[in-house]
Write a structure and sequence with these properties.
The complex is a heterodimer. Chain A has ten helices and no strands. Chain A is mainly alpha-helical. The radius of gyration of chain A is 18 Å and the shape is globular. Chain A starts with a helix and ends in a 7-residue tail after the last helix. The mean pLDDT of chain A is about 90. By secondary structure, chain B is α/β, with parallel strands linked by helices. Chain B is about 35% helix and about 25% strand. A six-stranded mixed β-sheet of chain B has the order 6-7-8-3-9-10, sandwiched between helices. Chain B has a four-stranded antiparallel β-sheet with strand order 2-1-4-5, covered by helices on one side. In chain B, helix 2 crosses helix 3, helix 3 crosses helix 4 and helix 6 packs across helix 7. The N and C termini of chain B lie far apart (about 35 Å). Chains A and B meet through helix 1 and helix 4 of A and helix 2 of B.
């Protein structure tokens, strides 16, 4: 792995996104807009209803958006032959993965600032340090990137890649504590939820909102980052220089 | 380096359970343009991919410049142009090439200079600032070719590089191949267009996963008494 090559990959990915104004705008603004919509949905109800749901969605939305974007982009690299060309060049697989993670991580910063800004404008009560919301949102976005990169190896077409969203993401969404607190899940399901990364992403966000010291956020965040790193490493195994 | 730059011995490749190449032997000399000719589907691309080291092989060996195909030390030295242009459609020609130059390890300033050099070599000066998506098919394949020239490779593997090019550009590109070979590089070009055969120093005629002839263009014709390579190829295939 070479920093110069990693940075070259990241710069190139950002160049592509910058060219594609619609994608760029959607990446940055859509999560924030969805949270505004959520605020409107709960506008006439007591504020704690919104406050209960918003942190979870603040964790889930960047994860989903980045999952979709990264799985489709990587699949495009595979199907257009550019990945094969890159792997025949002196590029390490780590350069490719970290380059993508770096580029999408930078976009995630912008996205998180907009989304957190929207929540605060809507009056979300945050007991812990607000900056942590941004940090957790970025970690969740990177988790989405890592999962998307790995999944793209198992999709032959963009149709298949997009369908990994309902297959891999929605089950996590249902059990992650967004709808029902994890402690109230039936036996068996609670244990399953404890094995899934999105549960920790949501839990970290809820911890920042609920606790003045953001107690527990460190360990949740560590689990999210750990999953992201492990998934990236697994994704690396799917980048093969030789293909059948 | 004189002699054989590429040595393929007893190469076997299966794709989807079907044998594509079986026991293929081949040598390609440095300093020559070698043409790999044969009908579509005869295994040309599979053979080229095995030489570049991107093809999973079932048996045999492929050595390039004395190293096993695909080994890390060859990645600066082998340029490969796939049949479908493998460049980013949503970037400019220049941005594509600068990116690949950076991946090759060139410093920023050097990458910029080298980019302009290869753009000139494939005659795309007028399109350098255009998005690849907006180019014609022939122009796109020239961008892909330019990317393979960036490293000034010792071995250049080209899979049907002249498809869709107009005669003037085609002539210029073949002249560029000849110049590289004259400078000592190994150039292996596949084509299913037999009229390109006379531009090669040596011909490999391939059919159904096997090399049926390995000779000079004149030698191929003399062997069969045919007036041109196409007729010679037909005579060889139908005679065997």
């Amino acid at each position: 792995m070479t920093p110069r090559v990693t940075v070259a990959v990241a710069t190139r990915v950002l160049q592509q996104v910058r060219r594609d104004h619609r994608t760029l705008a959607m990446l940055l603004v859509v999560p924030g807009l969805l949270l505004c919509l959520l605020g409107w949905v709960y506008a006439d109800l007591p504020a704690q209803r919104f406050d209960a749901l918003a942190p979870g969605l603040l964790a889930v939305i960047p994860f989903i958006v980045m999952f979709l974007v990264s799985s489709v982009t990587t699949l495009r690299e595979r199907s257009s032959g550019t990945l094969e060309r890159l792997l025949a060049l002196p590029m390490g697989r780590g350069d490719f993965l970290l380059g993508y993670a770096l580029a999408f991580g930078l976009l995630a910063i912008g996205q998180a600032l907009v989304a957190v800004g929207a929540c605060l404008t809507l009056g979300l009560e945050v007991a812990g340090p607000t900056g942590w919301l941004v940090v957790v949102a970025i970690a969740d976005a990177l988790l989405g990137v890592a999962l998307g990169l790995g999944v793209s190896a198992f999709a032959a077409t963009e149709f298949q890649a997009v369908q990994f969203m309902p297959a891999l993401v929605i089950p996590q969404l249902l059990v992650c504590g967004l709808l029902v607190p994890r402690a109230s899940l039936p036996t068996g399901l609670e244990e399953v939820a404890a094995l899934l990364p999105l549960s920790y992403a949501v839990s970290a966000m809820q911890a920042v909102v609920a606790s003045p010291t953001a107690a527990g956020v460190g360990s949740d965040l560590a689990v999210v980052v750990g999953f992201a790193v492990a998934l990236l490493a697994l994704g690396g195994l799917t980048l093969r220089r030789r293909t059948p | 380096m004189a002699g054989s730059a590429i040595v393929v011995a007893d190469l076997a490749v299966r794709r989807g359970g079907v044998p594509v190449l079986t026991g293929l032997d081949l040598e390609v000399r440095a300093g020559e343009v070698t043409g790999l000719l044969g009908p579509s589907g005869c295994g040309k691309t599979t053979l080229l991919r095995a030489i570049v080291g991107t093809q999973v092989v079932a048996g045999g060996s492929v050595a390039v410049l004395g190293h096993p195909a695909g080994s890390a030390r060859l990645r600066h030295r082998v340029g490969y142009v796939t049949q479908a242009p493998s460049v980013y459609a949503d970037l400019m020609v220049r941005e594509n090439l600068r990116f690949f130059a950076r991946v090759l390890g060139l410093r920023r300033a050097r990458a910029a200079v080298r980019t302009e050099e290869v753009i000139a070599e494939v005659a795309l000066e007028g399109q350098a600032g255009r998005l690849v998506r907006t180019l014609s098919g022939g122009q796109r394949s020239r961008v892909s070719l330019a990317a393979a020239l960036l490293a000034d490779p010792d071995v250049l593997i080209l899979d049907e590089p002249t498809v869709g090019l107009d005669p003037v550009v085609r002539r210029d590109i073949w002249a560029a191949f000849a110049a590289r070979a004259a400078a000592g590089a190994t150039v292996l070009v596949s084509s299913h267009v037999m009229d390109e055969a006379h531009r090669c120093d040596r011909l490999l005629l391939m059919r159904a996963g096997a090399i049926v002839v390995d000779d000079t263009p004149d030698g191929v014709c003399a062997r069969t008494g045919a007036p041109d390579v196409e007729a010679a190829f037909l005579a060889l295939v139908e005679g065997s």
